[in-house]
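<purpose> Linking amino acid order to shape
<body> The protein record starts here
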Amino acid sequence: MSQLFSPFSLGPLALKNRIVVAPMCQYSAEQGDATDWHLMHLGQLALSGAALLIIEATAVSPEGRISPADLGLWSDRNEEALGKVLRAIRKYSAMPIAIQLAHAGRKGSSHVPWEGGQLIPPTQGGWRPLAPSAVAYSPDEPAPEALDAAGLQRVLQDFVAAAQRAHRLGIAAIELHAAHGYLLHQFLSPLSNSRSDEFGGSLENRMRFPLAVFDAVRAAVPDSMPVGVRISGTDWVAGGWDLAQSVVFGQVLRARGCAFVHLTSGGLSPLQQIPVGHNFQVPFAQTMRQETGLPTIAVGLITEAEQAEAIIAEGQADLVAMARGLLFDPRWPWHAAAKLGAQVEAPPQYWRSQPRGMSGLFGDAAKIGMR
């Protein structure tokens, strides 16, 4: 029996297999509002046969966006726009949908990637980014504004309000984005956090604000809604955030009721040196799983069915997440199930697509009649 297609639970959330659609920024919102692009994009992924779909990094405030085109969940209008998309998807897919809540910090106010990704100054429609410290991401950029006590409280409440909106929308789980160089990661890493107060310096202090956000979000939604965290296992820069610190963070998160940790890496510094290759981030998930006992999601150039199967079967992670691979092949879970002799859910409108000579891939597909 395929382990990749075995069931798993994130707390009270039951999943039918171990495949997760990772959050993927689309830079296609209007003032934070989801658009028809999101209906098309998320709709096709909700029919992919994966077990869980995580909506892209969703800003908790306007200044928390990476770009002006980021998805948001800070207003009633944002909530209604995303709700419209979700209601349409749920007519045809029972796949659980989670959301990644995020604040870009010093990486905010940027052009979309296909327009270069550079910082947009306020004089050209951008805004001054916020950060733990007045330390720019790149030497050629102006310094962000360091958050004061009032600013920290405002950010925390923005996360809480967005989490409550997500719950009202019937979203199944929340993933807090503490990776890829965004605000919560910026607090964790000594490369971006030079504060001298209780939120900077020691590891305990650098974890304090991300943990406060987690605690506030966990308290703001029912226990039936799992809350997890995405972490960069390392900055890939000497003297920065690393796996040992990630494990300590994970251990503290587990004690606070964290449901899962989603392990990625990098994104904090342009000095990073990443040895990209198949499974290059899987060891972070494996170590986190072994050292904390937390359910872990592995990601990073997982492209083949047999590769994903081995990650689960060998206990390297509890779930595997795919991003670019599912953009390229939105039916990847179907193809993986076919290779591994497993079954996958598919809408009845597509049952007749099962290749000739293959049986059982879609389970109830044999019931379909022909006229």
About this structure: The chain has ten helices and twelve strands. Residues 8-340 form a domain with the TIM Barrel fold (CATH 3.20.20.70). The chain has a mean pLDDT of 96. The radius of gyration is 20 Å.
